[in-house]
Input
Amino acid sequence: MGTLKLAVFLAYKSIFKGNRWSLLLILMVMSLSFANLLLTPSILSGVTDAIDRQRIDTTYGNIVIDPQHNEYSIARTRDIEEAVRRVPGVTGVSSRLTSSALFEYEWKLKDRPEDKGKSGTWRVVGIDPIHESEVTTIHRHIFDGTDLEPSDRDKILLGIEIAGGERSETAPFQTLQGARVGDTVRLTFPNGVQREYEIKGLFRARDIAVADHTAFVTRSEMASVLGRDVYSDRAHQMVVRLGDSGLEARAVEEIRALGFPVEVRTWHDYSGALSGVVSSFDIVASLISGIGLVVAGIVMFIVIYINVLHSRRHIGILRAIGIGRGAIIGSYLAQALFYSTLGIVVGGLLFGFGIQEYFARYPLDLAIGQVSLVLQPGTVVNAITGLVAAGIFAGLVPVLHITRQGIIHAIWGK
Amino acid sequence: MIEVRNLHKVYGRGPAATPALKGIALSVEQGEFVAIMGRSGSGKSTLLHILGLLDSPTQGEFRIQGTDMLRLSDTDEARYRLEEFGYVFQEFSLLPGMSVLENVYVPALGLGRNNGFKKRATELLRTVGLVDRMKHDPTELSGGEQQRAAVARALINRPKILFADEPTASLDLASARVVLDLFRRLNNELKLTIIMVTHEPDDAQYVDRVIWLKDGLIADDGPTASK
Output
């Protein structure tokens, strides 16, 4: 008990009555190191979170209902929609008819009909605009023109990566090279149907993998292309929106329990290669965190080591007057814990009320969308553990070294 | 009380080995005030450091009241330094960041007992004439005052032996006299054994006995004229 009391007394005196610049420097290094340990993984988590949100908001909703594996389409979609809407947590259901099509723009200007001109093959999705707006946010990303109306027949909504132009990310030769609202495009479907549509709106959802390469027409228009007799009450895919993204697994079970002959999956099951990209981000985040921790540990070690070396004579005098090694080591351990704790608190406040707040107001504007910081609990636990461990290591190693030296050497360096 | 036989100390190894003590033999009785004198490099500080358990000899025997001091564990050595010995160093050795009073009672905290150490530290500061400076930072004290505070610290745990390594070397004449008078008074009143290294011939008038070292050996050992 005496040793502990003495250790705390010595630590208190060293911290609060010692060199204030030294305390300030150590505190600054510890708090900035901690904030840095939180920042990098939070940015990467923000990127993966933005990618995930994009997939939910612009492409899949939370849950995707597909035909059974041996069917091309889902039958009795009205009944399914009605039943799914009653599942707790469901806020929207949209049935889609999907096809690919050859898009042509300014085809009348081609020298010969067989020239490629401004054309390409993309995905066309037939939607009920009102139902779709309950599930995805495509309508919010229209930057020119307007959204489709349920009664529209010869109108089309184009993703920016189909239309092309200055705002697209795709090379011009892979787009329609600047199709604009009011212009006409000609679509040729695999069943031979060929139709002309006026571009009603252009959207840029910043989902450069899927959504921005998609065009939308109304569901009734798509049904007429594919065959109204067959497709008036059928869909190739249904997407479901939930009020809370954490309830997907339970909602999937409840929709399956409705007993319709369909496949029900979460958006996550559709991640495919993108899932690998996100996993890669997680690995990169772990690597950067690890490197950040090592760098922070080394910086802290140097700063605390210099501080302890500066106290070498002090330690020697304490030993000369009979203070035991336990009390001396304990005092430096207490100092290391104090510096670590204060670094965590100050760094945490700096991150929470400074950096995170700044990114919330001014998100990073990346190609995938606006990215804010997402702080995972695991990141905080890792940063705290790492900082405390590095602080203790940096505090203990030099003091153990000095207390093993001779007293005379510690006091006079001889 | 203190018995030393054939004490050797060699610094370094091989061709660089430098002998500092070459076979010292001496005994000091309880209550003696002894000065160890000699030229620079004669080995006097080395001898004091070994007697005070701040350093260890290369070979020899060293006993205090029959206890073999060279076989003590690190913990027991620390206990001796804390409970049995007091130290006053040549350079002012007060700890930064602590008041004069805290500097004096730090060794008492090491005992781990709530033994009225603040009251005793205050009394000791009164004895050395620094009670009105006890809340000051050591850097605010003159050299003589710092050395007197160091004496108070050395006495806080009621040591049996006080070791002083050239305690007046960094002081002006007046301050040196105050410190030496204090030593003399402590020796007379408390029967405190004091072993002091000094190179000032005038300091001899304060002590009972002078041991002269030359080249690591005792050249002369005897009572002073004052005795």
